[in-house]
Amino acid sequence: MSERKVLNKYFPPDFDPDLIPRRKQPRNSQQVVRLMAPFSMRCNTCGEYIYKGKKFNARKETVEGEDYYGIKIFRFYIKCTLCSAEITFKTDPKNTDYSAEHGASRNFEPWREEEAVEEEDRLAKLEEEENNPMKALENRTIDSKREMDILDALQDIRAKNARNERVGNSVDLLAQLGMEEVEDAEDAERKRLEEEDEKIVRGYFSRIPVDGSISGTTVTVKRKADDSEPSVESLLSDSTRALINEKSLALQAPKKKKVTGTNGLGIKIVKRPKPS
């Protein structure tokens, strides 16, 4: 029996994926996805409460003609758990949240709460300024002081950036000057060494005119060094020289003189005279 959960499938030698027919789907087809309710809501048909995190098999599609700075907006379709009424909600990239669209109302929307609080504070401030001129003058003074503090902080930041830029430029200039000085010293040393080498070469090789030549023909003359050339033994190390001396002494050992009329055992051989 073959394995059910295999990773490698068999493909025959004559398999051609181009021959597989492709399904033609509409441009904006709906996809079935598994998701959880992104916020708590109440069904408008039966009044059933759907808490946040409840799982649904939803249909997802892309909203045509709507986007937020190039970000696509998706719409999701779910059904009420009690009356099976259709509920739709969309993604809201502006507030990084979701917004209820049809079939249900959201129990709490945090950004709307913030907007309501800000609006209430603004209306209360305007009403207080209308009834109390001194309060209006005090608020204007506080606003002007805040603006002056912001401008001072901005000016300090600009001055600090300009100072850092000047310091950076001066450091770069010093580094560049230091590199130029080092390069100049290296060039001078290299030029001096080249001149010394050229002088030594001119001392050993020189061109002199040939005697009696009319066309100014010259020949190159190689001069011998004033110092005598060192011997080979002087170039060797002490250990090598000692080893060579030992070998030479071993080769020059005196040989024993051969005693005439004796053999290897020391027996003297006497030749008999030939009979006449």
How would you explain this protein's 3D organization?
With 276 residues, the protein is α+β, with helices and mostly antiparallel strands. The protein contains 4 helices and 10 strands. β2 and β3 form a beta hairpin. α1 packs across α2. The model has no long low-confidence stretch (mean pLDDT 79).
Could you tell me the strand content as a percent range?
15-25%
What separation lies between the terminal Cα atoms? 121 Å
**What order do the SSEs take from the amino end to the carboxyl end, as H and E?**
EEEEEEEEHHEEHH
How helix-rich are the residues, as a percent range?
40-55%
Give a topology summary.
Blueprint: E1 31-36, E2 41-43, E3 49-50, E4 55-68, E5 71-79, E6 86-92, E7 97-102, E8 104-106, H1 110-131, H2 133-204, E9 205-209, E10 218-222, H3 232-235, H4 238-251
Task: Spell out the key features of this protein.
10 strands; three-stranded antiparallel sheet; 41% helix; 4 helices; five-stranded antiparallel sheet; elongated; alpha+beta; 276 residues
In brief:
With 276 residues, the chain is an alpha+beta fold. It is built from four helices and ten strands.
